Amino acid sequence: MAFDTGAAAPWLGNPVHLFIIRRQHITHRLASGTRDVVVGEHTYYAAQIERDAIRQTAERAKDRLKIRMAYLTDPAADEYPITQAIGDWWRPHIPNDPITVVCLATEYGAIDPPRVEWTGWAVGPSYTDTQLELTCDPNPPHGNNQNQGPKWQRACWKTVYSTGIRGCNLPEHGYASTVTLSGASGTTLTAAAFAGPHKRTLVGGRITWLDEDEALHERAITAHAGTTVTIAGAIDDMPADAEVTLYTRGFWVHGEVDAIDGLVLTVPDFIGTEFSLLGGTLYWVRPDGLREERPVMGHNQATGAVTLLWGGDGLEEGLAVSALPNCPNTWAACAARRPDPELHFGGAIYKPVQDPITQGVSMSWG
Predict the structure, then answer these.
(1) How confident is the model over 175-215, as pLDDT tens digits?
(2) Cβ pair 231, 187 in contact under 8 A
(3) Contact 48, 69 (CB under 8 A)
(4) What 3-state DSSP class applies to 342?
(5) What superkingdom does the record give (predicted)?
(6) How many Å apart are CA 25 and CA 68, to the nearest integer?
(7) CA distance 20 to 27
């Protein structure tokens, strides 16, 4: 009886381990050994990389997988290994986004697709002068959160902007509504619905619509008076009775870095913002296309200076940045963001907070 060599290779103990390591839109495909492996339209590049044997036990801590790959910490090295870019994700700045790992196995010359043997997330690196050891966990990084339900407390327990079961569903890009125009001429659009009432101002918002080819178009709203809005940029082919999507002003703030001093960025557009950016998040795009985010630890509204929790690649003068303010989780903050905070606020504003023993305040609610 004849046996296919590729099918028998797993039993002969000489599989080729393949790795798929992803961060946002960047994917690294690597193969253990000295030969590249082509699978369909993808090439797994030969690299100095290996992994531990896969274990599945009743104890979660033992299910972690360690992957070792070449990495040089010498900044003056003549040549770097192909896996250097992966190690750079944690040096010198730790990433703020999840990094996924897929481990596969195949054999040289195999006809069948590679076997997926393990999937998980990279949770921590360890470096030597010549090696990166990556600890990976099969469980999601946020899967250990317990007791995350509603809590009886004065402050709101909901996560701002989130649409999950713990979210307050505040639309970060502005409140949306569908509007049918009654007139369109150049940069002026007319509709009865423009008269409101609106949950937030329309100035600073935007209008989107689909053309005959189902292509999406967008214009910013620069002025609003009664049933008329003025948009940035004339529209020549807009039908007078077109249906558009109207967005009120959102909560994002955009600007350009004017100066950098350590972890302090000065952005003129952050002067006098509607809401303080303290506790919010700053976003920017690195030169390699990765989108970074950092918590904002301080905001001076008089100067537009924001202080980040830690630095990152690509922070320089002239960089375009965006910031999303947080919510202090108070009734006043909710009322400033919504016309109907009583339908969204998760805190208990009438919960007693005075100590009946030391302050002599009755606990009676009668």
Answers:
(1) 999 999 998 888 999 999 999 889 899 999 999 988 888 88
(2) yes
(3) yes
(4) helix
(5) Bacteria
(6) 23
(7) 7
